[in-house]
Amino acid sequence: MLLEYTKLILLVILIHASHKRIHNLQLIKVYVNLLGERDTFVWALHSSGTFSVKSMYAKLINNGVRVSQDLWQIKIPTRIKIFLWYLKRGVILTKDNLARRNWNGDKSCCFCHSTETIHHLFFECAYAKFLWRAVHLLFGIAPPLNIDDLFVTWSKMGGVIYNSLLLTAAAALCWTIWLTRNEVVFDKCRPKTFLQVLFRGIHWLRQWARL
Ligand SMILES: [Zn+2]
Fold first, then answer.
1. How far is the CA of 112 from the centre of ligand 1 (A)?
2. Is the whole-model pTM more than 0.85?
3. pLDDT for 156-192, tens place per residue?
4. Measured in angstroms, how far is the CA atom of residue 92 from the centroid of ligand 1?
5. Domain positions in the chain
6. Residue 162 C-alpha to ligand 1 middle, in angstroms?
């Protein structure tokens, strides 16, 4: 028998994990009133009751979750900033992270059949290496070694003027790799060529330049 709720408010807070392996989702408050009406879901962090990234971000900040100011100040869509934040924390759902959550699927990279990890997908895989090499040619900065190097050192090699540009380029590149990977994994698309992936990254950069 279905329970009828008049108000179900879920405040879901992404908690910064001390380890980098999984998303920790903590349900901190649940208010349930049982009445004879239809179920409704209300996002309690916005007056409209509708989910918004901005309200979630504000809640994260107000709850003391530390985020990189550099990351949040660059002019890219908020959902890409959140993706980068997940990437920086090492918690995006690559296959190795899924396996830690008891997922038993094929763990190989969809591009080259090595084991898919964040480090492999964004730094070691042939697609990633090609894209970082292209950035190297454009900016004269050698490819980052790993995710920490990307955010701590690599994206700060441009000086005051160009740091945000470097981080934006890194965002476009990583987002392009992730979208292309997801298309192959979930939509069963054939992997794009290196140049197609590169042009896609440039496309995102052009889109974000208008922001
Ligand atoms: Zn690969």
1. 4
2. no
3. 887 877 888 888 999 999 999 999 999 999 988 888 8
4. 16
5. 5-62, 69-209
6. 30
